[in-house]
Design goal:
Blueprint: E1 10-17, E2 20-27, E3 30-35, H1 42-53, E4 66-73, E5 76-85, E6 88-92, H2 101-106, E7 108-109, H3 114-120, H4 125-129, H5 135-158, H6 162-201, H7 208-258, H8 263-298, H9 313-324, E8 327-329, E9 336-338, H10 339-429, H11 432-518, E10 523-537, E11 540-554, E12 560-563, H12 570-587, E13 596-599, H13 607-617, E14 623-628, H14 630-633, E15 641-646, E16 649-652
Parallel strand pairs: 3-14, 3-15, 7-13, 13-14
Antiparallel strand pairs: 1-2, 1-4, 4-5, 5-6, 8-9, 10-11, 11-12, 15-16
Organism: Haloferax mediterranei (strain ATCC 33500 / DSM 1411 / JCM 8866 / NBRC 14739 / NCIMB 2177 / R-4) (Halobacterium mediterranei)
Pfam families: AAA_23 (PF13476)
Protein name: Chromosome segregation protein SMC
Length: about 650
Amino acid sequence: MNNSEAFEAGTVRIRNIGGIDERTVTLSPGVTVLTGRNATNRTSFLRALMGACGSDAVSLKGDADEGSVELELNGRTFTRILKRENGQVTLDGTPYLQDTTTADLFAFLLGSNEARQAVITKRDLHEVIMAPVDTDAIEAEIERLQTERKQVEGRLESLESLESEQQSLETKRGELEAKIEDLEAERDRLAERIDEEDQTVETQRENQAELDAVLSDLQSARSDLETVRFRLQSERESVESLRQERSELEAELDSFEATDIDHSEVTTRIDQIRTQIESLNKTISELQTVIQYTEDVLDGKADLVEDSLGGDAETGAVTDQLVSSSMITCWTCGTEVERDQIQQTTGRLREVRDEHREQRSELRRELDDLESDLRAAEKSQTQRQQARQKLDRLEDELDRRTDQIESLTDQREELADRVEELETEASELRGQAEGDLIELHKELNEVEFTLDRTRDDLAAVHDDLEALDAKFDKRSSLKDEREQLTADLEDARTRIQSLTSSAVEAFNEEMETVLGLLGYENIERVWLEQVERRVREGRRKVRQTQFELHIVRESDSGAVYEDSIDHLSESEREVIGLVFALAGYLVHEVYEDVPFMLLDSVEAIDSERIAALVDHFEQYPSFLVAALLPEDAQALDSAYDRVKWGDGVASSA
């Protein structure tokens, strides 16, 4: 289940980090055991490796102004540089990860790891598991998908009448085809009658040539008149359509103006937020440095004055005394204070750090929103300009077509007068037979004109039916798109629930396996249950998903009963915390993001069980680095790589 990329051995180079002056360590894939006594800077090494991966949980050596950690892995180099300027420590470089939220929670399992501590301190475990999940982004995605699906459904609704429209067009096509057949029959009948009339009056005509010329001119004039009338009607319909389009464009322009924003004000706010975020980054880094150093001192993993690799056995003894003593010399004011008091102060510092992190997250969300608004405003401005240009072109087109209508109107009047003159002239030239012939020619002209128009109408119907076929294809595509959006929407809605259920399942499976491996005889079962509770949120109560941890024990008589985590041994609590962190590691697939899992502060667990835990955890990461006391390390498989820490050196064994 580890990272799909095949990893070669990696090299870690450290300079002035934590309590380390300068060290280089090579890590091979698999398990690497850091063996050494307390206060030999094993934890400093782990924190340095975390820093190279991108975590903020790395500190600069107290007497140094600059430090660095470099990780060479698979031909690539990742760096983290720490600098002290004006009393503040800044972090720079190109780490393995840009965001280590998930890795800090579920892969870097030091003693202060939040997932481990959440079990011991009885925090809301569901909140810890869901911490890396951007629920706001999921809600935004749900809203986006709902909007897109609504748009698709609206387009589908507009296409719902396709069948009736198709049926109507097919009916119209049949009617037009029948009409064309009738007109062609009428045309043939009139042509035959004209031939008959021609034979009847042939001998009577004395001015046939002149009459034929007049009739030809009359037919041409009538045809021109009908053409002008048709063009005039088309131009008027086009003008009406253009006016409608102009109205829509004007409404669109009004909507653009209504959604405009103050570009200068938004830009200024963006600059302010970026400055605030930069300031918060510095403050968080400083707080993290103080917290880490304090934890290391309290845990006996760093000296009070200077944490050095060059310590001897006597130094180790003094450190052990400090760890066990209830009083400790404050390294800021020099007075002796209770360890609990320093721990309380450290706890308040953690709260301040977390508040700053939350404030930074809120600012980042506001920054994303403002930048999105700015981009939307710029896009709206571009669209407004395009609409204005289109409106200008449309106005020009309206003016041109209006002028064309006036011109066509004049032509129509002139042609109507011309037709009337020709009809009068033809009447004067014809006799009775010629009069009938002229009427037949007139009827034939009208039939042919109507026939041409009907054929044009039939061609338009054919075009509409072809366009309709394209719409049918589009409707099918839209239905597929709606189904996909519905599936994506359901996936987004169930993503949080899916993660929650997967976390419960992973914890329960891993817990059952680990309990079987470690053999805690008086623990029958440890399992998580997903429950829904009504909690107060502001002035109202809402339903909230929570995890409930159940611990089932077995008495000497064989009876089982449920117990509290408060009654477990420190060893048992630590194991449950580690398994909970492992569940988060699996659910969030952390092995796909970072190849390292780090393990520290497991001294409360006996050696044989530590060995079993390491053997079990080994299957998941590409690199498992565990910091152990020498006596605990002896219980592990001899095939595991070992790096000895002590006497001021780190050496491979």
